[in-house]
Amino acid sequence: MRLSFYNPHTSIGRTFISFVLRKAHNKKNDLFLDIIKSKPCPTALVVDGTASSITSGSSLIKFISDNYFLLKIISFLEIYIWCWLNGLNPFKEKIIFDKNYLDKKRDLVFGFCSLTDTFLNDKVIKKSFLKTFKGKKLLHATHYFGRTAQVAKNVQSVGVRHLLGEANIAKNSFFRKYFSFIKKVYVLPFVLKDRYQSRVPFAKRSNKCFAVGTLLLLSDTYEAVSGAHSDYMNFFHTNALHTMRKEIYEKRDIVKKYIDCFISPQTNEKHSPKKYFYSGWAILKIWASLTNSDLKKYHSFDIVEKYNQYKMFVCPEENIGLPSINFIEGMACGCAYIGLDSYMYKDLGLQDGVNYIAYDGTLAGLTQKIKYYQAHQTELRNIAQKGRELVVNSFKEEDVTLKLIRDMEKFVRTSKLESSFVVENYKNS
């Protein structure tokens, strides 16, 4: 098997646009960059000219994204810059610019469906290598809440029938509405980084609950102006991607006896994204995100230190059926996690009252659980300890990589896509 990464310069590692803007890249996808670097299996970089990091998510540069010839030139140059930015020698990497060099019996083409403009553009999607490639194809479904109907339509049009997510989103009703054609969702959990360590004895920690996460209000984002989130908002009847984060944040003074709220909104009222859209200056939108005082506050504290200050924490999930990476990071720091009573956790072996605390998704239910465990310290300590053991033993990068490669090799060989991370009781559910 050869793991062939589809347009990696738009979604993996440090992209050209993040370099230009001097922004840190999203490290949640570093597992794939590390696979490209370490080569636990043969890899290739597939560039078909349908996407660039310059245009990703920005309709303000539509004249580039709609011009396939120009987009192709930019993306072909960009892959070499991307290699340099991420410590790769482009002359030692297998870079595929011609679909005829893909092998349907050997290649597994892997990419992202919502971190690139490929699936947002009805014109360039016709040029995608995925459309004619007859081998195995797998797309990561992270952030699929944006322009969901359009993305789903184009994913289906190129013949993709398997997706990957940090949870089995096939069990989510919003996902099923738009992606009913998907045969299987492969569950790939977040990877635990070494910096998340338990440093403070449990007895010396605060007995309150630490609430963490960014609060994304979709109606306040630039993309909402062009209706990018209408599918989501019409389905859930809310502008919050994380409903419980919004409620905790808005009622933080009411629940402060039980919860220390460090949830921060991602947008700032004084920077109106709609103004940026109508002015036509994309740079103002970017500047707003860089100067967002709420986000600066959120990133101003040491998250590992914070986890070690508390006995329990909550980081509410996305309504589209995906958890936050914070849940494994906090658990690794010896902090008991409070999360939904959901497949998101049960599939991975988490059990209520054993290695995490399940609640019903309401603020009343959350505070009730916090009150109970504040008064039952032995139970809380045991849950925190068991939770730490689970994530440390299951989600380290070397273990995740080994299982992922083994599962992908089986998929290419037998056409059966099964996740080794899903516990036996939930494999067929």
Tags for this model:
429 residues, alpha/beta, Rossmann fold, 7-stranded parallel beta sheet, 5-stranded parallel beta sheet, 37% helix
Can you give a write-up of this model?
- The structure is a single chain.
- The chain is of the alpha/beta class.
- The chain has 2 domains: 2-187, Rossmann fold, CATH 3.40.50; 202-394, Rossmann fold (3-Layer(aba) Sandwich), CATH 3.40.50.2000.
- Helices cover 37% and strands 14% of the residues.
- It is built from 18 helices and 12 strands.
- It has helices spanning 16-20, 30-38, 62-65, 68-85, 129-132, 148-157, 173-178, 230-236, 243-250, 273-279, 282-290, 293-298, 303-307, 326-332, 343-346, 363-374, 377-394, 397-414; strands at residues 2-6, 43-46, 95-96, 107-112, 136-140, 162-165, 184-187, 206-215, 259-265, 310-314, 336-340, 357-359.
- The strands form 2 sheets. A 7-stranded parallel beta sheet has the order 3-2-1-4-5-6-7, with helices on one face.
- Helix 10 (273-279) runs antiparallel to helix 11 (282-290) and helix 14 packs across helix 17 (377-394).
- The chain is globular, with a radius of gyration of 22 Å.
- The relative contact order is 0.11.
